[in-house]
Specification:
119 residues, three-stranded parallel sheet, four-stranded parallel sheet
Length: 119
Amino acid sequence: MRFLPFLLLPVLAFAKETPVADAAALEAAVKSVQPGDVLVMAEGEWRDVEIVLTGQGTAQAPITLRAAVPGKTILTGKSILRIGGEHLAVAGLHFKNPDPALSDLIQFRKDSNSNSLSR
């Protein structure tokens, strides 16, 4: 067990933190995300965005989508979050005043044709 931190160094050495300012930047960043990477959503209102987080993280190096400041990245209107893959984490996002026509703000599938979490 004493060598475990050294085994993780190669994975963590390539992990990166990527700030994203809008839905287009987030979509582009998700396409190249790797285990250990962190996508950091800018604070502010994200209105009517469809976020699709897909990827294959690992137990030691999950892929994370998080708010730059917890609670300050606010998803409003018709915004939804879809998550599909393995070892994905989401933190600090705040849903506020969702469109009442939406039935599911968070879905554990990448699209309407998928029934599973896998990529």
